[in-house]
Amino acid sequence: MSPLLINFAYVISAALFIFGLKMLSSPATARRGNLLSALGMFIAIVFTLLAQGLDYKWVILGMAIGGAIGAFAALRVEMTSMPEMVALFNGFGGISSLLLAWAEYHQNPVMSVFIAIVAFLSAFIGGVTFTGSMVAFGKLSGKITQKAVIFKGQHIINAAILATAVGAAALFCMNPHTGAGYALFVLIVLVALGFGVTSTIPIGGADMPVVISLLNSYSGIAACAAGFVISNNILIVAGALVGASGMILTNIMCKAMNRSLSNVLFSGFGTTTAGQGGGDGPQGEIRPATAEDVFYILEAADSVVFVPGYGLAVAQAQHVVRELGDLLEANDTEVSYAIHPVAGRMPGHMNVLLAEANVPYDQLVEMDDINPRMDSVDVCVVIGANDVVNPAALDDESSPIYGMPIIETHRARTVIVLKRSMNPGFAGIQNALFFAENARMYFGDAKASIQALVAEFKSD
Amino acid sequence: MEPVYLTFVFVLAIFLGFELISKVPSTLHTPLMSGSNAISGITLIGALASLQTDNLVFSAILGTLAVAFATINVVGGYVVTNRMLEMFKKKDEGGAK
Question: Which residue ranges form the domains of chain A, and what is each CATH number?
């Protein structure tokens, strides 16, 4: 097949990707959008395989291995593990860009300065994306500590690594075809892999939404750079779309935490504040409640808003929460679910879990929609969320999370907080909400606690 | 001229991406990420095209690895996104009984 025809097929693929993303603007059309996007990918793959001179034994080997692993992982993964899955896939996108750039360079070492620069970018960003994502995967799946790992001179080491990479890149781009050039390229790959680890390890678990979004963006940009290396438009267009998507999500996540990207990446938030948090936070009397107390409060309520957090995912409580929601609705209570943009470990994490439990998406409300009518809400039920409902973000200027937008549950008539214990949340900050007059603490595992409520409703 | 032309395409695609993605509601942010993950598996196209019969062996190995990783992304990304989007239902579609 002629290259011209193949390139026309790529135009169709690009159009399908764009349509697919456009249809993601509503849950009603999103599924068809994803299928269109997949069709675009299918067309691109088929036409690429029709090109002349391909070595099919390698093609089949690679696609068979990748396809089997990909399908297996995608069909088996639990919805609560979606963040680590996405982190892993980001990493694979990165490593394939690195490998592609390397393969191209190994095959054709004589390159122009422009191609050498983009080959460097593709390899470097791809490598950082790969190991960075592996660290994120490890943190999210609990294989390595979720805490921010801070070591002495971290910033200096990272700066030195970056300087080495840029220096090596400059030398490499001047003489890519020499033996020294090749050695520099290998050095760049190693440095990139190391930098991915050292730059991600100091970032704590609750900042993962930002990190995943950023790595998502990197994987797109790496694909884009690889597209420049082989002068292929479809890689550039698709990579740019993904890069833009990741950047937008990163920005949304940072705004929702009222922190700049550099603060998330470099501050090691969580360890620095944890030390001071315990002692001098707000103190006072807490009002514990039993399942029976909570049942009477909920039964009398006209409107109930559930506010889920990462604790919901940990306890796998989404299905029982839906069951409780259904019982409340049968009791003529208006039920909705208010979701903070950074609740959970990745953008939209809570929405997916609740969708899995069959909560209709029109019952999910965003923070900015629920806050104005919070005063008229009878009961807020906070499940495994802490910092995103901490009123200190609004009024305590000394608080590390001051200025972060929160779901203002303290303004509801009654707040029920489901929590394992009085331990402070991720940021190590005690929560004034727990001591508020209208708050009741309902201690225990979220799933067991809600099951107890369901049982109360059923026996009623 | 080639670099200029490629950069031109790149810049337009970035702007288009910003326009498109900013319209995605926060409810769909996770499927957006996994779906865009699948799209970033587009390196598969480049990796496939790089596997020429006259390749050096080491290039072929690197290319095959690139194909394998990118295929994981493409297949896994689309399948998992489809699984997720299947679950998003409106009330009258029988979401809540």
Answer: 77-266 (no CATH), 278-459 (3.40.50.1220)
pLDDT for residue A286: 83
Average pLDDT rounded to a whole number, residues B31-58: 93
Looking at CA atoms only, how far is residue B4 from chain A in angstroms?
Answer: 10
- Residue-wise pLDDT tens digits, A398-451: 877 888 899 999 999 999 999 887 766 555 667 888 888 899 999 888 899 999
pLDDT at B97: 39
Mutate to test the interface with B, among A90, A241, A319 (most CBs of B within 10 A): A241
Residue A137 corresponds to which tokens in the numbers above? 């995967």
Test mutation, B22, B34, B36, B80, chain A, max A CBs within 10 A: B36
**Distance separating alpha carbons of residues A99 and A95, to the nearest angstrom:** 6
pTM of the model: 0.90
A309-321 residues labelled b (16+ CB within 10 A) or e (exposed): bbbbbbbebbbbb
The helix/strand/coil state of A83 is helix
Instruction: Sheet containing A414-419: give its strands across.
Output: A364-366, A334-339, A303-308, A379-383, A414-419, A439-443
**Could you tell me where the beta strands, DSSP code E, fall in A230-378?**
303-308, 334-339, 364-366
What is the tens place of the pLDDT at every residue in A294-309? 999 999 999 999 999 9
Closest chain B residue to A242, measured at CA = B36
Task: Tell which A residues from 79 to 108 touch B, by Cβ distance under 8 Å.
Answer: 79, 82, 85-86, 89-90, 92-93, 95-97, 99-100, 102-104, 106-107
Tell me how crowded residue B89 is: count the other CB atoms within 10 A of its CB. Answer: 18
pLDDT confidence band for A3 (50 / 70 / 90): confident
